[in-house]
């Protein structure tokens, strides 16, 4: 036992940043964690958007990076999903946060992984790898999404079973979420795939699931992507986004934005 305590830095809000309190932290495995923070009363965002968050850097200035918001727009708290990078400027510090710690939160959320950037359709497919799942935890918990689309599909590709963050919630079709618990059982579909470990479900990469038609099993509609009816969001590895961006364009899909809605969207802020 020791009387020594680690003194936590005190953060000061700025014109662009508020200071929030960490409410809870969950470590999914040795390189993946999620956490919830307080939400300012004035903070508004669209499900699927991202925001700048951070801590005090070694130079005393805010050390920030963009994070997709994993909680829906109606939640009274804000949730994030993060990897742990041992030598990462921010994540090396962020992975050590505990309830009660302070964190910087940007005041202006933005992004293109929102329904406003897509044309009307029947099926919404959200393709993700790793922590690219984060915005697709927000959108399926937003009741408006079920008004816009007949089928709402989250595809999550990871290397290991323990990387399937929020698996129980999605397999349960968001039964604990009061605003979507009536629509989700009939409209929400969760398609996890694990590529480097044995798994009781899919074990191929997303492109192979599309080629074989396995991705569409149990989902009403055609066993292929159709630009007339299907709308796509993508978030995750550069490789996946580049591959599918080219694929969808070849299939006649047009990329959308907030200014000009289309048939598929990616988050350009993360891919450069």
UniProtKB/TrEMBL annotation:
Family the entry assigns: Belongs to the ferredoxin--NADP reductase type 1 family.
Domain FAD-binding FR-type, chain residue ranges per copy: 15-116
EC number: 1.18.1.2
Reaction equation(s) it catalyzes: 2 reduced [2Fe-2S]-[ferredoxin] + NADP(+) + H(+) = 2 oxidized [2Fe-2S]-[ferredoxin] + NADPH
Keywords tagged on the record: FAD, Flavoprotein, NADP, Nucleotide-binding, Oxidoreductase
Protein's GO biological process: cellular response to oxidative stress; heme catabolic process
This protein's name: ferredoxin--NADP(+) reductase
Origin superkingdom: Bacteria
SUPFAM superfamilies: Ferredoxin reductase-like, C-terminal NADP-linked domain (SSF52343), Riboflavin synthase domain-like (SSF63380)
PROSITE patterns: FAD_FR
Cofactor: FAD
The organism's taxonomic lineage, starting at the top: Bacteria, Pseudomonadati, Pseudomonadota, Alphaproteobacteria, Sphingomonadales
Organism: Sphingobium cupriresistens LL01
Entries under InterPro entries matching the protein: Cbr1-like_FAD-bd_dom, FAD-bd_FR_type, FNR_bac, FNR_nucleotide-bd, FNR_type-1, OxRdtase_FAD/NAD-bd, Riboflavin_synthase-like_b-brl
The keyword Nucleotide-binding is annotated on this UniProt entry: yes
Keyword Flavoprotein: yes
A GO term for molecular function: ferredoxin-NADP+ reductase activity
